[in-house]
Amino acid sequence: MTISLAVPDILVARAKSGDLEALEALYRAFETPVYNLALRMLRRPEDAEDVLQETFLEVVKSITQYRGEGHLWGWIRRIAASKALMRIRGERVRAAEEFDEETASAPETRHGGTTGGVPARIDLERAFERLSATSRAVVWLHDVEGYTHEEIAESMSKTVSFSKSQLARAHARLRRMLDDEGAVR
Amino acid sequence: MMHCTMDDLLALRAGEASVWAREHARVCGACGAELEALYQRVAQLRALPLRRPARDRWPIVRAAVAARRRRRRERWGIWSLAAAAAVAALVVFRPFWTGQIAGAELARVKQESATLEQQLRRYDPEGRVTSGREAALAAALEDGIAVIDGELAHVGPLDPQADRAALVELWQQRVDLMQQLVSVRVTRATYVGL
Q: What domain range is A21 assigned to?
């Protein structure tokens, strides 16, 4: 499902001048994509709502710094991704996720191996949610939002190799969880 | 028979695969199927349904914006009064200060201010994402600096000796605020890495 992310220039200009109605219009226009980005990366709806709120506090504060270079959604998405990644760095998310990642990961990355005891037929959305927060972030930013590995590495203060290996590891895990031949349609 | 790894498949998708991987994927049915499955997984991820937040967070954002604006106006008032008091002190007490403040002191605080300016530029706040609390604190400090800059622009035409004493006082206030601003920026850059 896609939604339109185009907003009139006049609306952006009014928002830059501090017009609360225009700022609310921007909020309404980008509420759903920001929430979805955060939800896919963080999994918990309450965390995603917090990121939505933090993102728009930042948008309202910094909208004057948006110079119209590139799409407004790209600028807002960068803020939202940064807020979500900050949460992933937080101990609360990491502690809950690392166990999940460790218990389900297996050394095999070449296809044709075992399924590692993971249920074979679960849908993609559930399988994606079972990835670690870092893996979800890399997969979502790269495969859905179109970030390059260089952009992901910069956002996460990591190396390009880290981003690439996280993506490969995540896809290997997804493949195992979905039991490719049967579940991927 | 050796098959493609997930790294190979991702490299194939990105058009960056080795010659061996390209050739192997072309002739190996299993690896071709794996590559196709990878494309399908990504397409399915992109097609996941959009979720909507259960609660409307705009009222909270709007309230925070209103509170920030109100605090900003109040701080402007306080800083304006402080700056006006500094100028008044200059006018009233300048005879006592005349000749007592060395030009070296003025040069010192100006140099200190310039050093802090350079330090701030290195941390480029416009390129960083900040928390609401940090942003409010930084905005208040910047407002204070802006008010002092305005006052500094006004004390120029006064008597050179009294002028120097007041200038030192104002420049010192400016340095104090800038030190706090640097602390806010540098601490965040160091600990958060943004």
A: 9-89
